[in-house]
Amino acid sequence: MRVLVVEDDARLAEVLHAGLTAEGFDVDVARDGEDGLWHAREGAHDVVVLDILLPKLSGYRVVAALRAAEVWTPVLMLTAKDGEFDEVDGLDAGADDYLRKPFSFAVLVARLRALGRRGATPRPRMLGHGALTLDPESGECTVHGEPVVLQPRERALLEVLLRHRDRVVAKDRLLHAVWGLDATGDANVVEVYVSALRRKLGAARIATVRGLGYRLVNPDA
Predict the structure, then answer these.
(1) What is the SS3 assignment for 69?
(2) Model's pTM, two decimal places?
(3) Cα gap 53→62, rounded to integer Å
(4) How far apart are the C-alpha atoms of 138 and 46, rounded to whole Å?
(5) Distance CA 73, CA 117 (A)
(6) Coil, strand or helix at 168
(7) Is the distance from CB of 5 to CB of 21 less than 8 angstroms?
(8) Assign residue 144 a region: left if phi > 0, alpha if psi is -120 to 50, beta otherwise?
(9) Is the pLDDT of residue 48 over 80?
(10) Which domains can be identified in the chain, with CATH numbers?
């Protein structure tokens, strides 16, 4: 598996390069956002490890530029330990996963392998289901053409449901997708946000499948 590491901390970049190489990865390293964006666009990488605070271009701008150019390589963002909104902003920009610093190297390797198995899945600019639409890039949401104002985690939760609109999505999967794979909070927080979405979008648009999770419904069909 070929991995691109975009990290300006020389020591951390060196450790990641050595450690991932020892695990059998083919590793390229970029030290700023502009160089990282070029490598991610031009190279055939399976996964990108992307820091947020980078010289020249931030990690947010790099991942947003990749998605705008329809480069769907999975991106794992490295966030600050105390970055309260880093995770949501990263997911909103188009990242697939995040890991807080300092992190376990074993967890990083597991995440990279999981993202590599997922592959570069194309993601359309506009997501929709019946009269419901969401633009993941801008965060704009409409129902029957009328704008609906969503909070960041509400948008992230709706995006996951829309990307799996033909399937039931388990509560734990929603928790991990929106709050991160290392989320340790009460899974009932998902119910709170689903309730908020129902109030804003219409209760009939999100069905509870007892014992399994949630599924989008098109009440306009």
Answers:
(1) coil
(2) 0.59
(3) 11
(4) 26
(5) 11
(6) coil
(7) no
(8) left
(9) yes
(10) 2-118 (3.40.50.2300), 127-216 (1.10.10.10)
